[in-house]
Amino acid sequence: MADRVVLGLCGSLRQGSLNAALLRLVQRVGTGITVVGGDVAGRLPLFNPDVENDEGSWPASVRELRDLAARAEGVVVATPEYAHGPAGVTKNAIDWLVGSAGLAGKPTLLVSASPGQAGGMRAHAPLMPTLTLLGAVLVELRGRLPRGLADGRRR
Ligand SMILES: Cc1cc2nc3c(=O)[nH]c(=O)nc-3n(C[C@H](O)[C@H](O)[C@H](O)COP(=O)(O)O)c2cc1C
């Protein structure tokens, strides 16, 4: 059976991003899924309703995001926490999906990585009502990852 396509949105532009690593980890431990679009959020322009309303003027990255979201059966959002909130890159990508049905009915997992005490969790609460409004079905990660898996020490 073909893998299920999962849209991965990474809200970090940083080289060596821990959240990008988390998305790669999801791909590695996820059975039967293919994570697509890992860097598309970082290539989007700032959301502008004027551009959104003129489909002919959409930049390639916006088309790519919309197409991937339409194809995906699930979504993983890996967002940094900045100042106790989500990264603007993450919210910007979600804003570009508001005018589509791209997230509707899709299982959606929010994950974060941060060396900070809460591990980036405080980025999640502000995103939840927005994702829910777009029809995303928020899911939780159950269980624990084996120690060392996230940094690649154990496979
Ligand atoms: C301006 C700024 C603000 C930050 N604020 C927080 C914060 O409030 N809580 C937290 O846990 N980490 C915070 N961090 C740490 C980042 O979440 C951490 O560096 C994380 O690894 C960034 O994601 P990335 O590795 O995917 O780029 C902040 C980092 C920066 C640069």
Characterize the structure shown.
This protein has one domain (4-139): Rossmann fold, CATH 3.40.50.360. It is of the alpha/beta class and 155 residues long. The strands form two sheets. A five-stranded parallel beta sheet has the order 2-1-3-6-7, sandwiched between helices. Strands 4-5 form a two-stranded antiparallel sheet. The chain has helices spanning 18-29, 40-43, 49-52, 60-71, 88-95, 127-133; strands at residues 4-10, 33-36, 74-78, 81-82, 85-86, 107-111, 137-139. Strand 1 (4-10), helix 1 and strand 2 form a beta-alpha-beta unit. The structure holds flavin mononucleotide (FMN). Flavin mononucleotide binds at residues 12, 14, 17-19, 80-84, 113-114, 116, 118, 120.
Q: Any descriptors?
A:
globular; five-stranded parallel β-sheet; alpha/beta; 6 helices; binds flavin mononucleotide; two-stranded antiparallel sheet; Rossmann fold
Mean pLDDT: 92
Number of domains: 1
- CATH-assigned homologous superfamily: Flavodoxin domain
Helix percent reads 25-40%
CATH class: Alpha Beta
Strand pairing plus helix content: what structural class? alpha/beta
Tell me, what's the shape?
Answer: globular
H/E order of the elements?
EHEHHHEEEHEHE
Strand order of the largest sheet: 2-1-3-6-7
- Bound ligands, named by name, code or SMILES: flavin mononucleotide
The CATH architecture: 3-Layer(aba) Sandwich
Question: How much of the residues is beta strand, in percent?
Answer: 15-25%
The tally of beta strands, per DSSP, is 7
The value of Rg in angstroms is 15 Å
Reported for the largest beta sheet, the result is: 5 strands, parallel
Per DSSP, the total helix count is: 6
CATH topology title: Rossmann fold
Q: What separation lies between the terminal Cα atoms?
A: 24 Å
Q: Which stretches are low in confidence, meaning pLDDT under 50 for 5 or more residues running?
A: none
